[in-house]
C-alpha cells in the first residue's frame, strides 16, 4: 500500500475500448481531500467522543433492560401478554445491538484516521515482507483509532460489547431444564364431533360450503375465550388442517386402516404440517390433486391418501377423519390416527 500515488487530475490515460481500440479520456483523479471538523477542532473531537460513548451507554442500558424485561414481563398465558413480552424483548435487544452498530460506525467515520490510500493490485500470494507491512498497518490502525488513549470510549465500548451477549445468553440459559417433553405433540385438540372451522375467523363449515376443487384452511371450532388464550396458539399450530373437495370418483383412498370412510362426499382433510420438517403445505393444484410443500418440494397426492409422490418427505400427511353432524356441519370423527409433523415423532394411540 502506498499513499497518494493516484495519477494527477487532468492527465490522459490510455485504455482499451469495447472493440479493442485504444481510447483516451482525462483521468478525473482523486477528489480534493477535505478535513473533517473533528480533524481540525479538538472541541468537536471531544464532543464526538462523548456522543459515541453515550450511544454505547444506551446500548448497555438496552441490554440490561432486555434481561430485566425477560424476567419481569413474563407471558401471562394470554395472547396480549405474549405479544407485550415479545415486543419489549425485541425493542430492548434492538436498542442494544443498534447502539453498538451506530456507535462503531460513527467512531470509524468521525474519529478514526481519514487518510487516503491507494492499494495497488498485486499477486494474491503475499511475500513475508508484505505480510509484515500488513501487520504494521493493523498495528497503526489500532493506534490510529486512539483506543489506548481514549479511556472513556474504550470503557464504554467494552461495556456495551460485554453486555450485549446477555440478551440471548440469559434466555438460553434459563430455558435449560425447561419443558422438552415431546409427548405434547402426540395428540391435538381434535375430538369426536368437533366442528371444522375456517382459519382464522373460526366460522364453522358446512359440507355444502365446499364445491368440487375448493380448498379451505381449517382449525377446530373453539370458544372466543379459548381462542384468545396462550394455549390456543400452541394447540392451533398442531391442529391446522387443509380441507379439499374432490370429485368422489377421483378419490382412490382415504387412508383408513380399518376400512372406515374418513372422507365425506369427496371432502378430505389432512394435516397442514409437512411430514418432512414441518413447513405448512398449502399449494394445491386442482388438476393433478397434488399438494406441494414450498420448503423442499415434497408433493402429496390428495386423491390417494396424501401419499408422497415426490420430495424428501417419507410418509403421507396424517388424515383427519371427518363426517357431518345433524345440521350439515363438517365435524371430526376423532383425532388424527398418528402424530402430525415430522416423522421422528411417534405416537401410541
Ligand atoms: S418441510 Fe416440506 S418438504 Fe421439507
Question: What attributes characterize this protein structure?
Answer:
349 residues, Rieske Iron-sulfur Protein, 4-stranded antiparallel sheet, disordered N terminus, binds FE2/S2 (inorganic) cluster
Folded structure, characterized:
This protein folds into two domains: 37-117 and 128-174; 183-332, Rieske [2Fe-2S] iron-sulphur domain (Rieske Iron-sulfur Protein), CATH 2.102.10.10. The protein has helices at residues 37-40, 42-72, 79-110, 128-145, 151-163, 166-174, 224-227, 230-239, and strands spanning 2-3, 12-16, 22-26, 117-118, 196-198, 215-220, 241-245, 267-271, 283-285, 290-292, 299-301, 307-310, 322-324, 330-332. It has a four-stranded antiparallel beta sheet. A four-stranded antiparallel beta sheet has the order 9-10-11-12, with no helix packed on it. It is α+β, with helices and mostly antiparallel strands and 349 residues long. Helix 2 (42-72) packs antiparallel against helix 3, helix 2 runs parallel beside helix 5 and helix 2 (42-72) packs parallel to helix 6 (166-174). The longest helix is centred in the N-terminal third of the chain and has 32 residues, at 79-110. It is built from eight helices and 14 strands. Bound molecules: FE2/S2 (inorganic) cluster.
Amino acid at each position: 500500500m502506498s499513499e497518494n500515488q493516484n495519477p494527477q487530475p487532468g492527465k490522459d490515460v490510455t485504455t482499451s475500448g469495447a472493440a479493442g481500440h485504444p481510447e483516451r479520456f482525462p483521468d478525473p483523479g482523486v477528489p480534493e481531500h477535505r478535513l473533517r471538523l473533528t480533524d481540525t477542532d479538538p472541541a468537536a473531537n471531544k464532543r464526538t467522543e462523548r456522543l459515541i460513548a453515550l450511544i454505547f451507554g444506551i446500548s448497555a442500558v438496552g441490554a440490561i433492560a432486555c434481561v430485566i424485561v425477560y424476567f419481569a414481563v413474563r407471558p401471562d398465558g394470554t395472547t396480549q401478554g405474549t405479544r407485550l413480552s415479545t415486543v419489549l424483548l425485541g425493542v430492548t435487544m434492538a436498542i442494544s445491538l443498534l447502539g453498538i452498530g451506530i456507535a462503531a460506525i460513527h467512531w470509524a467515520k468521525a474519529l478514526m484516521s481519514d487518510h487516503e490510500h491507494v492499494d495497488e493490485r498485486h499477486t494474491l500470494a503475499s511475500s513475508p515482507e508484505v505480510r509484515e507491512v500488513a501487520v504494521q498497518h493493523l498495528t497503526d490502525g489500532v493506534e490510529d483509532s486512539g483506543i489506548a488513549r481514549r479511556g472513556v470510549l474504550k470503557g464504554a465500548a467494552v461495556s456495551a460489547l460485554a453486555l450485549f451477549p446477555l440478551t440471548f445468553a440469559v434466555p438460553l440459559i434459563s430455558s435449560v431444564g425447561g419443558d422438552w417433553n415431546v409427548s405434547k405433540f402426540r395428540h391435538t385438540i381434535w375430538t369426536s364431533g368437533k366442528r371444522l372451522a375456517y382459519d382464522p375467523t373460526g366460522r364453522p363449515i358446512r359440507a355444502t360450503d365446499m364445491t368440487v376443487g375448493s380448498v379451505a384452511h381449517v382449525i377446530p371450532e373453539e370458544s372466543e375465550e379459548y381462542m384468545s388464550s396462550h394455549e390456543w396458539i400452541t394447540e392451533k399450530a398442531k391442529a391446522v388442517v387443509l380441507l379439499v373437495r374432490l370429485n368422489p370418483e377421483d378419490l382412490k383412498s382415504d387412508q383408513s386402516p380399518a376400512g372406515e370412510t374418513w372422507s365425506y362426499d369427496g371432502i378430505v382433510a389432512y394435516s397442514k404440517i409437512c411430514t418432512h420438517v414441518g413447513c405448512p403445505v398449502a399449494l394445491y393444484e386442482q388438476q393433478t390433486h397434488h399438494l406441494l410443500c414450498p420448503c423442499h418440494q415434497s408433493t402429496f397426492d390428495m386423491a390417494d391418501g396424501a401419499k408422497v409422490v415426490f420430495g424428501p418427505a417419507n410418509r403421507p400427511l396424517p388424515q383427519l377423519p371427518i363426517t357431518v353432524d345433524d345440521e350439515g356441519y363438517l365435524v371430526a370423527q376423532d383425532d388424527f390416527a398418528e402424530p402430525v409433523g415430522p416423522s421422528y415423532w411417534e405416537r401410541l394411540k
